[in-house]
Design goal:
Blueprint (H helix, E strand, L loop, with lengths): L6 E9 L8 E6 L3 H6 L2 E8 L6 H15 L9 H24 L7 E9 L2 E7 L3 E6 L2 E4 L5 E3 L5 E3 L12 E6 L5 E5 L1 H4 L4 H8 L5 H14 L6 E10 L26 E2 L2 E9 L3 E8 L4 E8 L7 H15 L21 E4 L3 E3 H7 L5 H20 L2 E2 L8 E4 L4 E3 L6 E2 H4 L20 H4 L6 H17 L14 H5 L15 H10 L11 H9 L3 H8 L3 H4 L1 H24 L2
Antiparallel strand pairs: 1-12, 2-3, 3-4, 4-5, 5-10, 6-7, 6-11, 8-9, 11-12, 13-14, 14-15, 15-16, 16-17, 18-20, 19-22, 20-21
Length: 576
Amino acid sequence: MAKATLKITQGSYSTKGVKERNEDFLGALIPEGAQLTYKGVVAAIADGMSGSDAGHEASHCCVAGFLSDYYSTPDSWSVKKAGQKILSATNSWLYSQGQQRYQSSKGMVSTLSILVLKSTTAHMLHIGDSRIYRLRRGNLEQMSRDHRIWGAEGKSYLNRAMGIEPRLEVDYKAFPLEKDDIFFMSTDGVHDFIPEKTLKTFLQLSEDLDDIAKKVIQYAIDNKSDDNLSCQLIRVDEIPLAKEGELLRQYANLPFPPLLDVGMMLDSYRIEEELHASKRTQIYRALDTKTNRQVILKTPSVLYEDDTQYIEHFLHEEWAGRRLEHKNVLKVLVSDRVKSCIYYTTEFIDGQTLREWMDSHPRPYIREIRLIVKQIVSGVRAFHRMEMLHQDLKPENIMIDRQGVVKIIDFGSVKIAGISEITPLEQADDNILGTLNYTAPEYHLGARGSVKSDLYSLAVITYEMINGALPFGGDMPEKPNKINLAKLQYVPSFQKNTMVPVWIDGALKKGCSINPQGRYETLSEFLYDLSNPNSVFLKETADIPLLERNPLKFWKGVCLLLFLSNLALLYLLSSF
């Protein structure tokens, strides 16, 4: 039996009505294959504002531009991020063209309503007073809200539209799909001239959506519509299973590889050395005999051959890695050869892990640490730009090659926003991804991760590089619940390393905050405070007693005072 996929039927109609020119524009794109899975179906409708100098051009730009640009955004991006990025750029262009060509804020202005159907979810992006309705099981509901203000004498005007202001505010909403849902999108020349009760009747008339669109518009014309008239209908004929997982299982039907020994061949890769083996994976150094290039070959453990969740996570690693292209991130290689079993290959890094570097540099210079942290930040940003969270930053997952280039490795815990919209990877409650001492506390409390979660892991790593210890005096509790986390006390750097400036310790303490609200907003802020004294931290430290701030300095002072007191006492005794 074939697996269910997203299937829709589309119909539309548009006419200039009593106007000389049709300034409405609509369109839809129903892709096939991977784009249907990763990006979904898009339908859009726009209405060039009355009184705009180039309303027709504005509406055309909004719809055609979005339909083109949306499918060029990274597959890892969520619909919301992709949509808002595109609309913000389009709005800036429309506004600047209106100012330059027409010297008016009404030069190129249009409403815009967009519907993206992806997997089992509908995503709506909306600006203006065009509308999106949904008919579900006989109930008609307006999903969008009009950005229209009513003035005197019953007149109204748009208070939000594309191109009217340099800054854009977009309504975004997501809601689950059901089979047989019908979405109706229209401009005000239609919905202002047909009662909702009548519209609902039309939407239930027949299977032919083009025919329904024409009948709705004819009704509005007969009801004295004085504007352009456009509408578009989308019917959901079939939706995929919510957790089908087919996205990341294109190789799931392949067999698991056997245990590989030195000298064995696998799809033209000759195994040269086993670098790591655990109950979950094996990692080998291999020679690609086709290119004569050293590579890393990673295979899943046969212990999980029947574990579909494990297979999905393994394939997820390769998918994430292939979409990251950055000098500070391990490169997953794309091969043109047909795979005989489940595995993937990456570049070979001739170097050491950060853990090994830390073991051989127990008291490194701060400037060396800054150079490493700067490169880690650069690599983590590459994940965040693709709307991915690494979720397992630790010294063992960071490598330094012989030229000093730092690379983030291991994609097993990466969370991808765009994939989560399609088929969230299942995760057992007692199996938090990541490593206990470096995993952000919010994960243990069941909260969603964010950029601040990766920042926490980086701050812990930085603290450990500087002080040779963990920031809370030892390992995290085995079960870090709310009560156990509340008991944790940050250990100031001066108790571990008296050479650490108080302002650097202030940056570490803020980055390691148990509560995400107490951390930096961005990685760049943390990086900046590691190199530049923050007056806030200097002021806070001045209020801490010397005994707490620097015990060694305190007791040295006490000893000096005692020594001087003894000298004074000896002097007094000798004078008698």
